[in-house]
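agent> call fold_tool(seq_1)
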Amino acid sequence: MKKIFIIISLICLSLSLTAMNGEVIAVKGKAEIKKGGHWLPAKAGNKIEAGSMISTGFKSELTLKIDGSVITVRPMTRLTIEEITQKNEAVSSEVYLNVGSVKADIKPASTKKVEFKVKTPVATASVRGTSGEIGSDGLLIGTSGSWSYVNNNGIETRVNIGDSVIINDSGMVTPAQNIKANEVLPQTVKTLAEAEANSPTITSQTLAFEDVASVASLVTKVSINIGWED
């Protein structure tokens, strides 16, 4: 009886899940799609199904539409479409970003719900109606809505509008703006005070105004009279 129940459940699940295709709506430069073990040049109108791999060249981009969502595959990127399905009134899509980056604007069109997930070597980002850019190096920039960013250890970080987060290969989460702030940048000296503060050599060789006045007070006046003799 238990086996029959499991079989019926699996049949119902398979009937509720409907495979979908994405569509290439724009190609800039050189982009290719791998289907059935063969790489073919990408062009607008190509259908993309689960299992397809997309690759873009230098200064090249490919724009993919899945239902109402638009995904831009950035230059020098390779990703695999792992899932595009519709379950009841929700469209679910999942990609694996091998290398490079993608920009995603996720929103529903004919459906009421949309789910999008990007997996990278270091973390997984998932959204429901939002936008942002994510790279295989672990950098995620949120431009609208809210992202759920989970490292490989299962720790979740929320990335909201304007936020940027980096997850490295060890799972450590660091706000990208903090990394930029910690970079050592050359300092531009604007005043003599700043120059003295930053250079002990200048400080030791520079006399203060009071020191100059003290030295001047020590100077005595010397009169020299010159006369002529017959």
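agent> call fold_tool(seq_2)
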Amino acid sequence: MTTILGLTGSIGMGKSTTAQMFRDAGIPVWDADAAVHALYAPTGPAPKLFHATFPGSVGPDGHVDRAYLRTLIAKDPGVLDQINAIIHPLVAQVRADFLKRHNGLVVLDVPLLFETGLEARCDKVAVVSVDAKTQKARVLARGTMTDEDFDAILSRQVPDAEKRRKADYIIDTSTIDVAQDAVNSIIAELT
């Protein structure tokens, strides 16, 4: 029997670090972001589909050009629905293949779990969370986005407070030790 734990959290909350804790404990983890990256790669199915819909969206290296897609979305937010219509079925297939290969406790690491309704496919949901000041500091310390970029991403995500209300488990990521204790407790309960 498979128990599906959805793992989610807003940007900068520590979800990737927490997902690695589950991996380190031997729990299979499916990473939605990694699945999308693989689908966007030259060997994946997405470049051909994106090129057909959005000429110019595939770079010279054969990867889907995410920066180009962001530019299209900025000009016409409706483009995001077209992008999702292409990528979501591909991601769903990769996820289904992962679930067929594993039994016992598995983790679906999905940043937009609630936004996509995927929590309905999970037996339990864990939300990683930290205070807003720490969250923003973590994101801006990466040096890859501005305050405006950060705010734009947050505006498209379900607010942390709402995620926490919907969660079966809240994993406080203020320190590695606190997060690890929560992960250990969840694993003990679900295995």
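agent> summarizing second result for user.
DSSP finds nine helices and five strands in the chain. The first strand starts at residue 2 and ends at 8.
agent> awaiting next instruction.
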